[in-house]
Amino acid sequence: MNAIEISRPGEPEVLQPTRRARPVAGPGEVLIRVSASGVNRPDVLQRKGVYPPPPGASDLPGLEVAGVIESGDAAGLASAGLAIGLRVCALVAGGGYAEFVNAPVGQCLPVPDGCTDVQAAALPETFFTVWSNVFDRARLQAGETLLIQGGTSGIGVTAIQLAKAFGATVIATAGSDDKCAACVALGADHAINYRSADFAAEALRLTGGKGVDVVLDMVAGDYVTREVSCLAEDGRLVIIAVQGGVKASFDASLVLRRRLVVTGSTLRPRPVAFKAAIASALRERVWPLLATGAIKPVIHSTWPATQAAQAHALMESNQHIGKIVLTW
User: Fold this and answer.
1) 32/161 Cα distance (integer angstroms)
2) Phi, psi of 108 (to 5 degrees)
3) CB-side exposure of 223: number of CA atoms within 13 Å?
4) Segment (H or E) for 43
5) Helices marked H in 122-222
6) What is the pLDDT of residue 296?
7) Whether 208 contacts 169, CB under 8 Å
8) What residues in the chain have per-residue pLDDT under 50?
9) According to the 3-state scheme, what is the secondary structure of 277-325?
């Protein structure tokens, strides 16, 4: 099969076409003939050599795909309500930049009605991540306020739509007025240009001094100080990436007085059963919203898989709004 490998740690050009043996599905797995692969920040980190795949995962990058089930564990397929020949999207621990990939049955979901494979390939990584962190971990409720850092990223556009669909008020940050306008167009109630305004002060102003109930943070670093300062009583800060650095400081007395929770998670190394539970929740509560068009995948651009290097360069430029997808 054709695939894209990381020839050595480095810049985007180290992504090179290669030929690999087609994988064989094992117990509890399906083999997917891939038509589209999502591009995500962890792929960039893996390419740079700072985010290795978990033990047992493919060394090929790629965490989400869409395509057709080619073969697989018959009992597992039957129990999941899936079948050979069905169009699915899947979350994988690696190997998504290839024409074929194995995926655990529990991490596969039918392509939502009305979605193309390109749109479906843009779903798993961000939807699993947002559901797990915003709704399971941070327990966002209807009527609460969510602050999303990086509202036009793949995670951001998903979090905006899901939070609004489930009754929350959304404040998003972005790095330009145009990107702020895009956040509002997606449903955000407010958008803050972090280059021209202090997002913490603005979040307090927009909430009448109360503060926000949940912060979804992909930056960390010195953002944490300000995020803690603008949390409401019983507020929750969830850190899912550290683009701004791993060191952070904050006023611990605020945590005590306001009963705050500072938490975080990574999804890739979690066990299949954990991810399968997220998939089940998404299928029940979110997939119907995708089928009706109440929530839509936001695709910035598609690239032939052989141009994966250009796709990574685009992601690192931060010029995109929504998802970048490779096609096979």
Assistant:
1) 28
2) -100, 145
3) 25
4) helix 41-48
5) 124-130, 154-165, 177-186, 199-206
6) 95
7) no
8) none
9) HHHHHHHHHCHHHHHHCCCCCCEEEEEEHHHHHHHHHHHHHCCCCCEEE
**DSSP one-letter string for 64-88:** EEEEEEEEE-HHHHHHHT--TT-EE
232-254 residue pLDDT tens: 999 999 999 999 999 999 999 99
CA pair distance 232, 187, nearest whole angstrom: 22
28: which DSSP letter? T
pLDDT value of residue 49: 97
Cα separation, 215 vs 227, in Å, equals 7
* Amino acid at the residue 268: R
- DSSP H or E segment with residue 101: strand 100-104
pLDDT tens for 104-134 read 999 999 999 999 999 999 999 999 999 999 9
What is the pLDDT, as a whole number, of residue 132? 98
> Which tokens in the block code for residue 140?
């966002």
Half-sphere exposure of 192 (CA within 13 A, CB side): 19
The two tokens of residue 120 are 């479906």
Alpha-carbon distance of 245 to 103, in angstroms, equals 32
The pLDDT value recorded for residue 143 is: 98
Q: Which amino acid is at 306?
A: T
DSSP conformation class of 133? I
Cα distance between residue 17 and residue 3, in whole Å: 6
Judge contact between 39 and 314, C-beta under 8 A.
no
Residue 83, amino acid: A
CB under 8 A, 24+ apart: contacts of 201-209: 201/230, 202/171, 203/147, 203/171, 203/230, 204/230, 206/171, 207/145, 207/232
- In the chain, helix, strand, coil percent, each to 5? 35, 25, 40
